[in-house]
Amino acid sequence: MSKVVRIQGLVRLAEAIRREIGGGVGPDRRRELQKQVDRSIAQIDQILSEHRAKPGALAAPSRRAYAFLKGIRWEDVPEAQTAAALPAQATLRWTGLGPMVDRIAARLSGDVSQTELAEIHGVIQKTSRRIEQSIARSGVGPEHLTPATRDLRGWFAWMAEAENLREYLGAVGRARTAFAPVVKSAQITIEFRPSRLIYRLRTLGERAKVTLPTAMISFDEQGFADLAALISRRDHDARRRLEERMRADAYQDLAEDLEGLSGVVEGTRGAFHDLAQSFDRVNQAYFEGGMARPRLTWSRSFTGRKFGHYDHVKNWVMVSSTLDRAQVPAFVVDYLMFHELLHKKHGVRWVNGRGHAHTREFYADEHRFERYQEADDWLNKLARG
Predict the structure, then answer these.
(1) Is residue 161 classed exposed, middle or buried when 0-12, 13-18 and 19+ CB atoms within 10 A define those classes?
(2) Whole-angstrom Cα distance, residue 27 to residue 21?
(3) Which residue of 9, 112, 189, 252 has the lowest C-beta tally within 10 Å?
(4) Which has the higher per-residue pLDDT, 125 or 196?
(5) CB atoms < 10 A from the CB of 355, how many?
(6) Helix (H, G, I), strand (E, B) or coil at 379
(7) What is the DSSP letter of 270?
């Protein structure tokens, strides 16, 4: 088995560069960024050479980040534009959501009977419905919610699904088993909630509370073991391994799901492609200009399995930043846009309580795309890295 080469900080660098040049940069700043990227690529190439490895040996997230940096066509980077002053937007928030999450997490951290679990699930569902009803009555979009409120909205919406609640409980059990030898307290509370920290540990007498980002629910036993090693501060490589797990597809997919449920703030302009322009092309070519535009945004990370998503409830399309590269033709972005808009057109067919989005009619419609096979081949190639 060939050795995997891991380079810390590469993914964060690529994501930061993509976001900045997507907003447009002036000539001086573009030259600075180009020098920074050139230095980084030279360092990566040197590391690969020392390992006698090729870029294909990089871990999947790093490989996608390297491909993005390597493929930047600086002459195509958009110029900075002076934006007109935007009117101040009102913010909508709900008091008490944070403390409610605390109470729910505390109950889920102990032994929970089926009766109690059903009660907790009911409270979560009721709270999520009230949040959505309040947003609908107010007639506001996600951009009018405070970031903290958006995160909590997504948490309640995700937890409202019974299957996700069971996943939460499973993660609590895996985490407690890993942390017990490290956090030597009689009572350990594990809570997964919106957090910008890798972990937070608070102890009070015989009690300890470990707060973790919600997406860590995707961790397996070894993932929590790595986190326990980081908490114990006895393993210098634990942080590297942990950050690699947080860049892995399972973690990133759940993070994207949570972001979508929180409410997507539209951002159509990428580094090399504009989703608004893609929508307009597809709308005219395949929907006779009659498709109402949903909310459009790029994903925050370079995903490797999910290249797009359409949310029927919130009416938004998210496209993977992996497609926002100069080497990816516009027709590939258009195909992905077309695919997601077909979900908007066809909806979900329910059979025996199960929703089916990719129906026979959907696939027949999808093949109307003029360069269907070529675009599909492109996505398969990107998925293989």
Answers:
(1) middle
(2) 11
(3) 9
(4) 125
(5) 10
(6) helix
(7) -
CA atoms within 13 A on the CB side of 235: 15
How is residue 129 written in tokens? 């419905």
How far apart CA 40 and CA 55 sit, in angstroms, is 14
Separation of alpha carbons 109 and 104, rounded Å: 9
Burial 173-202 (b: 16+ CB within 10 A, else e): ebbbebbeebbebeebbbbbbbbeeebeee
Q: Mapping DSSP to helix (H, G, I), strand (E, B) and coil, where does residue 188 land?
A: strand
Give me the residue label for tokens 């398969």: 380
Residue 263 in tokens: 């409410």
Other Cβ atoms less than 10 A from the Cβ of 123: the count is 15
User: What stretches of 194-287 adopt beta strand conformation (E)?
Assistant: 200-204, 207-213
Can you give the length of the chain in residues?
385
One-letter amino acid for residue 230 of the chain = L
> What is this structure's pTM?
0.61
Q: 325, 324, 328, 321: which is closest to 304 by C-alpha?
A: 321
Q: Which amino acid is at 270?
A: G
Which is it for the CA torsion 235, 237, 242, 243, positive or negative? positive
Whether residue 35 has pLDDT greater than 90: yes
Bridge partners of 274, per DSSP, are 269
Residue-wise pLDDT for 78-103, tens only, equals: 887 654 433 445 467 777 888 999 89
What would the DSSP string read from start to end of 33-89? Answer: HHHHHHHHHHHHHHHHHHTT--GGGB-HHHHHHHHHHHT--GGGSPBP--PPPPPP-
